[in-house]
Amino acid sequence: MPRFAANISLLFAELPYLDRFRAAADAGFKAVEILFPYDIAAKETRRALMANGLDLVLINAPPPNYTGGQPGYAAVPGGEGRFQSDIRRVLRYAEALKPGLIHVMAGYASGADAQDCIVRNLQWAADFAPHQQFTLEPLNPVSQPGYFLNDYDLAAACLDRIDRPNVGLQFDSFHARMIHGDAQAVWDRLRDRIVHIQIGSAPDRSEPGRDETDFPALFAAIDDSGYDGWVSAEYTPSTRRTEASLHWMR
Ligand SMILES: O=C(O)C(=O)[C@H](O)CO
Ligand SMILES: [Mg+2]
């Protein structure tokens, strides 16, 4: 079985933020990811990670997309200054929290200018922080209408042009199924570029096992491929308590 991590921005959300770390550890997770850790001092998050023996897999670069504003600026022409200050900010958090990965969000944009922009911006970030691994993730257009990276093949084309070893693809079975209909086919096609995996069922982004994706087969393919990163549960449990949604892990 792959190594599973809990995205505690969505899992254990029935608990206050600092209590989710213990709940994840008690449920058997050895690592967590946090979408936007910026509302709380990094030292508080660090203490909670250490107290519960948890690795931090991933954080997103700011700005938080739950405010209704731009979900990132990487592909937004004219937003380069803001992009660079957001990257500097996430790197300050990364210094304290040591996440394995930073997910950089593209923002609302379209067209050739936006693609040129995301290529330049990610090359800048990759060269500015050569020891940090960054990811790009396509988000499906139902959940994020207008988001630039809305297709896995578009993301692969951008990664070809960015051409940096520390920028890779974040595969999410929920978005892959929403966008392309078959999450396993996306995994099979793009496996060589994938540096991080997230899982959930479409269309309601609930726990694995509630759509037609054959998760045991996907987990077997992940194991067979030699992927040695984390597989993060990033879903909204269909159950009142997160623990009751974790049958897919066992
Ligand atoms: O929406 C997703 O799937 C993500 O992983 C993003 O990081 C959301 O911010
Ligand atoms: Mg995701």
UniProtKB/TrEMBL annotation:
Active site per the UniProt annotation: 137 (proton donor/acceptor), 234 (proton donor/acceptor)
InterPro entries noted in UniProt: HyI-like, Sugar_Epim/Isomerase, Xyl_isomerase-like_sf, Xyl_isomerase-like_TIM-brl
Enzyme class: isomerase
EC number: 5.3.1.22
One Gene Ontology term from the biological process aspect of the record: glyoxylate metabolic process
Molecular function in Gene Ontology: hydroxypyruvate isomerase activity
UniProt keyword annotation of Transmembrane helix present: no
Positions of the Xylose isomerase-like TIM barrel domain: 21-250
Any Pfam family hit: AP_endonuc_2
Listed Gene3D superfamilies: Divalent-metal-dependent TIM barrel enzymes (3.20.20.150)
Keyword terms: Isomerase, Pyruvate
Family note: Belongs to the hyi family.
UniProt protein name: Putative hydroxypyruvate isomerase YgbM
Originating species: Ruegeria arenilitoris
